[in-house]
Amino acid sequence: MSAVEPSLSSRRDARLNRELLIAHARTAFVEQGVMASLEGVARSAGLAIGTLYRHFPRRIDLLVAVYGALLQKFLDDIEDGMNSADPWDGFCAFLHVLCSAQVGDRGFCDFISQRFPGDERTEALHNRLCGLAERVLTQAQEAGVVRPDVTTADLVILLWASSGIADVTGDIAPRAWRRNLDLALDGFRVADGRDLTEPPIGDEQLYRVMARLNG
Predict the structure, then answer these.
(1) CB atoms within 10 A of CB 158
(2) pLDDT in tens, 14-31
(3) 41: nearest Cα among 30, 54, 26
(4) I need a labelling partner for 184 at 20 to 30 A (CA). Which of 58, 70, 146, 164 fits?
(5) Confidence (pLDDT) at 193
(6) How far apart are CA 68 and CA 152, in angstroms?
């Protein structure tokens, strides 16, 4: 009996330590973004940095533990909502959901707008997100309500812009990002607007930029 109890106790302690690290990492990521100090996370949890690395050998492992399930549910909710909306409403709702999800959580903002090459878990999630963006954009363009020259890269760039606006205005004008989004949506909509002076960013260029953001 005495040989079993330490093993059970060790597993329980390990589970509690893991949960504690995830909770403190979530707080740090929300406030500071995905590059928050891991030493600070361990210290705030009252644990050694070695304990953190035993549970999460790489920063991305901790990020997935904090945000992986949240992003999965986020994508499920987006997909459910897309099935019942008309093309323009679905397009607007998609961008509103994406942009609003960034407000107040720098870590989640970073997690959905960056790429983490070499990690199959995040690549699968981001590929699904890009697939949903492509689907909602294509539906809106085929319905003739969104300009045919808009690309998914334009939507990602809007996401970056919206997060920057929310970050710098949040404590003074917390809804400023919504005005910028409304203006952008008006620009995306089919109208008698002028031709764009610059070509879109290509898929490979976009991937490289998103990957560089976490470097």
Answers:
(1) 20
(2) 999 999 999 999 999 999
(3) 26
(4) 70
(5) 62
(6) 22
